[in-house]
Design a protein that fits this description.
This protein is α/β, with parallel strands linked by helices. It has eight helices and seven strands, in the order E-E-E-E-E-H-H-H-E-H-E-H-H-H-H. It is about 45% helix and about 20% strand. The two termini are about 20 Å apart.
């Protein structure tokens, strides 16, 4: 019997995103839905991670009814210690706890992926982009990795005018890529 594996990768940051892979192939990504500027739309988020909804969207009727399928969830394990303000840190922690609560409520375990792990794997073969202070520009380096690994996803992460991109979408896609290649 054919087994289909759907991978749902989540970047839970303040401007996070969700990426979807079916049998190891990238299928799409979306921003975490917001109400207003920074409040997660809980109903819309639940619809985006609910296993039945995800399967119905990415599998056809025959695959859902006569073939075996499973969903694996992966979320970036964010240790909120960046140099954000107190409000930003509180919002990020709230987002993380909300998503963990939803995944627990629907009864699906999830993998926590450390940023250092997926970055080390996905950044292989990419020249690290440095900021003026000689620290690695993680957002731009990740975008460069996405261009190398999944070039078809690049247009979907651009916002407004080039060269701007949605780093939450980039990170979610790369987290998913790491998961399908390593778990």
């Amino acid at each position: 019997m054919i087994q289909h594996v759907i991978t749902v990768a989540i970047d839970p940051g303040t401007l996070g995103a969700i990426a979807y892979f079916v049998n190891g192939v990238f299928k799409g990504a979306t921003s975490i839905p917001l109400i207003g500027k920074d409040t997660i739309d809980k109903i819309a988020l639940y619809a985006l991670i609910n296993p039945k909804n995800v399967a119905e969207y990415y599998l056809n009727t025959e695959q859902m009814t006569t073939q075996k399928w499973t969903i694996q969830y992966a979320m970036e394990s964010v240790r909120v210690n960046w140099m954000g303000g107190k409000k930003q840190v509180a919002e990020a922690r709230g987002n993380i706890m909300l998503i963990i609560g939803m995944l627990t409520a629907i009864g699906f375990p999830y993998h926590e992926i450390l940023p250092a792990n997926w970055q080390k794997y996905c950044w292989q073969g990419v020249t690290l982009v440095k900021k003026a202070d000689s620290k690695t520009d993680t957002k731009t380096t990740s975008f460069m990795a996405l261009q190398r690994l999944i070039p078809d996803a690049v247009e979907g992460v651009r916002i407004k005018r080039k060269p701007y991109f949605h780093d939450g979408l980039v990170d979610a896609i790369l987290i998913g890529y790491y998961v399908v290649k390593n778990l």
